[in-house]
Amino acid sequence: MGMATTMTMNMRLQFPGVVNHNQTSFLGVPMRLPYEKYSHPSVPSLHFNVQAKAHTRREDCHARHSRVRKKVEGKQDRPRLCVFRSNKHLYVQVIDDSKMHTLASASTMQKPISEEFNYSSGPTIEVAKRVGEIIAKSCLEKGITKVAFDRGGYPYHGRIEALAASAREHGLQF
């Protein structure tokens, strides 16, 4: 007759920061429990180490931007309108990815915008609308009417939304 064998697996979940002296040493290395030393060598013992991933806002933004960039590509007939937002400034570029060329750009560091607005805590929605207007005018001067909007991993809300709406109002098609 055939012999039926059963396998048992010991699963232990370890969370960082939680120290159970029965399971880990002072270095955090898993220790074998007393009942495990009598286990049969053919029976596997599984140890799972579950850790939560701690990402910063910047890393999350880069991950979102890479997901967006998989879908949005600037071509010669429809270049990419790329937005970068920092705490102090707002930058916009129109990029032809096939040639790796910047066709037009606008930012809050340019003199017309920086002299027009006096802001101390970063660009506001009004400043973003003005940047959208300037980038739309410079694109239309160069014959660019259609662009692919790349929000740069930022949520389509607030300054990003105001910039896009202003660029659309002044003649750019997304």
UniProtKB/TrEMBL annotation:
Protein origin, superkingdom: Eukaryota
Single GO MF annotation: 5S rRNA binding
One Pfam family named in its UniProt record: Ribosomal_L18p
A cellular component term, taken from the record's GO annotations: ribosome
Keyword annotations from UniProtKB, A to Z: Ribonucleoprotein, Ribosomal protein, RNA-binding, rRNA-binding
GO BP: any one term: translation
Annotated family: Belongs to the universal ribosomal protein uL18 family.
Name of the protein in its database record: Large ribosomal subunit protein uL18c
Organism from which the protein derives: Durio zibethinus
Gene that this sequence comes from: LOC111277858
